[in-house]
Amino acid sequence: MQSALLTFPLFALLTAALGLAASILGWRVMRGFMSDDLFRLLEILARGTFSFLVFLLALTLTSVRENFVQAESVVAQESLELRQLLRGPAVSGELRAEVAAYARAVAEREWPALSEATPRLSPEAGAALDRLRGTCAGDDLRAIARIEHLRESRLAHARAGAHAAFWMVMASVLLVGSFMHGRSPPSRGQLVVLALYLSAFGLVFALIREFERPFAGWVAASPDPIRSVVEMTGN
Fold this sequence. Notes:
- The protein is mostly helical.
- It has one domain (2-233).
- It contains eight helices and no strands.
- The chain has helices at 2-30, 36-85, 93-114, 123-134, 139-158, 164-181, 188-211, 224-233.
- It starts with a helix and ends with a helix.
- The mean pLDDT is 90.
């Protein structure tokens, strides 16, 4: 949790530092040939560049937030399917034990695997699901098929993060806008205001980074709905 929370100030500081460096560099490069016409052009372009960046960030944040919500919905559906297996007219002790084993493997083994840099499914949870399938018949087998589909959906949502090219493009747009901001001599007051402005972008970058990993980080989907199935079985 603490390492995840550190992501926000780190992104804010890094964004501010890079943006300020680009702005100062812009002034040093352009001061020798700055004119009124060029100043006005840079003012318009810088404003448009930052507006475009805000638009891209809004679209991206909406997308990763939606992916996170869908991941939580998949977890809730999987928990419901497991609970339905335990509500049949004649639920055997073996079925209860295998449902508990699968739910425990998902909560304890699969969640850490989904939070890795390259998300994956846990072999232990897969083996537990195979054993659970062996105790089922009829409608229960169709429920197992739905659980397997939901399990694959969890993996798909875990891997649906932004591509590295996205971060390169966002950083490039921010640096270009900051460079064009260096159209005037950088006073202390201007640098402070620009640093705060750029830090806000850094915080949004960090929020996107957290939401794009639905099973890791500060805002990760909780395994509690799956873990509650273990309590329901009494095992």
